Amino acid sequence: MVSDVTEFKIPETQEKVYFEPIMDLYNNEILTYAITAGSPNLEFAIKPLDSLIALIPNRPYKQFLHTDQGWQYRHSGWQNKLKKAHITPSMSRRATCLDNACIESFVNKLKVELGNLSNYNSAEKLITAVKKWIIYYNTNRIQMKLGGTSPIKYRLCAA
C-alpha cells in the first residue's frame, strides 16, 4: 500500500484542499482517503489510517504501507498505529519522489482529469468532485495493466 498528501489551491478563492489517499498496489484501488479544506493536521492525517485498519484484517503475512518522509508519517501517533495494526512502515529516501511514483502518478491522473481548478469556485465543490472521481476511478476507470478492468472489478474477478 502507498499513501501521500497532496494540496489543491482554488485560484479564485485561494482556498486550499488537502487530500490523502491510501492505495492498494495489488490493483491500484483507493482503499480509503481523507479530504479537507483548510490546513492538514494530525487528525486529518490519521483518519485514512484508522479507516484502513478497520477495513483490512490482520493478515498472517507482512503488510507494508509506503509513504514519503512527511511530518505526519514520521509522527509517533502514525507510527504507533501502524505498529499496533502489524503494518510495516516504509518511507521514501529524502527528496526522491520516484520511490513513491505509484501514488504520485495517481494524484497526477486525478488532477488532470478534474480539469482546471478555476472551474471550482469553492473548496466544497472541489471536494465533491474529488469524491465522485474516486468512485469513478475505483469502479469504472479501466486500466490496461489490470486487463482492461477497473480496480474493484479486478479484485472481484481474482477472488
Q: Can you count the helices?
A: 6
Number of structurally distinct domains: 1
What low-confidence regions span 5 or more consecutive residues with pLDDT below 50?
none
The arrangement of helices and strands along the chain is EEEEHEHHEHHH
Biggest sheet, open or closed, and with what strands and sense?
4 strands, antiparallel
CATH H level: which superfamily? Ribonuclease H-like superfamily/Ribonuclease H
Helix share of residues?
40-55%
How far apart are the termini?
A: 19 Å
Strands, count: 6
Strand content: 15-25%
- Estimated radius of gyration: 16 Å
Oligomer: single chain
CATH architecture assignment: 2-Layer Sandwich
The structure class reads alpha+beta
Task: Write down the overall geometry.
Answer: globular
Overall description:
The chain is α+β, with helices and mostly antiparallel strands. It has one domain (2-158): Nucleotidyltransferase, domain 5, CATH 3.30.420. Helix content is 42%, strand content 21%. It has 6 helices and 6 strands; from the N terminus they run E-E-E-E-H-E-H-H-E-H-H-H. It has helices at 42-55, 71-74, 76-84, 101-114, 123-139, 151-158; strands at 2-3, 6-9, 16-24, 29-37, 63-67, 87-91. The strands form 2 sheets. Strands 1, 2, 3 and 4 form a 4-stranded antiparallel sheet that branches. Strands 5-6 form a two-stranded parallel ribbon. A hairpin with a 4-residue loop joins strand 3 (16-24) and strand 4 (29-37). Helix 1 (42-55) packs parallel to helix 3. The radius of gyration is 16 Å and the shape is globular. The model has no long low-confidence stretch (mean pLDDT 93).
